[in-house]
Amino acid sequence: MRPFRTRATEPTPAERVRSILASAHSMTVVSDGFHAEVHRLPESEAVGNIHLHAPPESPSPMDEMRLPVKLELTDITPTPVRDRLRARVTVTGLLAAQFDAAARSTCMEFGQAVLEDFRGRSYVTLGALQETPPDPLATCEAAMLMHLLDGHGDSVPLLLRLVRPQPERGILRAVPVALDRYGLTLRLEYPNAHRDARLPFPAPVTDPDQADSRIRALLDAARRASHTNHLLA
Prior knowledge:
Layout: H1 13-23, E1 26-31, E2 34-39, E3 50-53, E4 67-76, E5 85-95, E6 106-117, E7 120-124, H2 126-131, H3 141-151, E8 173-180, E9 183-190, E10 193-200, H4 211-224
Parallel strand pairs: 3-6
Antiparallel strand pairs: 1-2, 1-4, 4-5, 5-6, 6-7, 8-9, 9-10
């Protein structure tokens, strides 16, 4: 008998880190007393033109010359809500020479990647990053969320019918704060608090063009759900 496997409904830490690396527009580089903000070049797919490599299999006389480096990235929701910070990613490693922000490309020996979010801290290996493709919605998530909020904001409250456990009384508004291949996340705001609610898609997205149909499927399911009087929708 084949083991039962549940369907994934949210990204793994490796997927989160890989997607943040793919979509980040800037990061902070800290090395040997050097502290700089590095911005992605429009034509480049590599974040800040820094390429991650595995450590060498055998020691080298140059090992003692290498400099520790730390890359810091933040994941911020593009929609206007309280507490917009979704996650922090820190990648540590070694450089062969002092970092040059003007260099076209820099090679970095990978040490470890750390994801910090509301769940806590997760460590991601280079192997996991290399084996994990970025989320297909990573680079267009911001535009899609803003389109959903600005162009279809009147439909968002309808999705509250799908939230489990049901929202408490007194909710002020619901705002989309995250979108990935597995689903949509809503921020439920109350006068003095907020919580996030995950709405999984019927099936994961494999191409950005599928996102609209997945969101429509959620809305159709919400219309079929029973109406609760105290909710916004």
